[in-house]
Amino acid sequence: MTTRRNWPGEAVRTLRARMTELRVEPLLFASLLGADYEALPSPVRRLHDMALPLILEGEVDIEVARNPILRVLGRVIGLPARAGSFPLTFEITGSQSRQLWIRHFPPRPMRSAVGARNGLLHERMAGGLVTLDFRLRGNAEGIVWNLLAVRMLGLPLPLAWFRGISARESAAGARYRFDVSAALPIIGHLVSYRGSLDV
After folding, report:
1. Rounded Cα gap, residues 115 and 125, in angstroms
2. CA–CA distance from 177 to each of 60, 79, 87, 135, 181 (Å)?
3. pTM of this structure
4. Which are the contacts of 126, defined by CB distance < 8 A and separation ≥ 6?
5. Model confidence over 152-166: pLDDT tens digits?
């Protein structure tokens, strides 16, 4: 007796298995922004559409704290330590679900791990010493990062201390632009860096 094979069903199972193997992770920023992602300026979308790993070149202007205590704090967290205008190499490695951002500031690179958590962008700095949670808002002008939570050594800190932190992504012609600034109440400016990348 000849056993008949269920060719259609077998083909579907094979196709599903192959699709699972080839499945691409959803883009991190597209998943967090939803429909707003399509409204972004082309250079901003291009950067977040790129396959990883990627290396981009550009320029950056850096301002650092004048307060020596804040300079030490910035050094511990891994923030830029030298003021001025410099060429910039920016790397993103890892996967869409867990990206490692490396900003090659002089005299040492600034690293942070970026991913999604509970619908927010979760950033880990200094090996997890400091973590930040942002709600992303996107429109035709770019992306605004709204800070919602800060933790140090896993302990939540008062958000009011960090109202002076801002981050924005935008476009200037065909270039991607970034603008990041951090200031603390009473003690003042911690760091700011802004610039552009060729995408």
Report:
1. 12
2. 10, 19, 14, 19, 14
3. 0.85
4. 76, 77, 78
5. 999 999 999 999 999
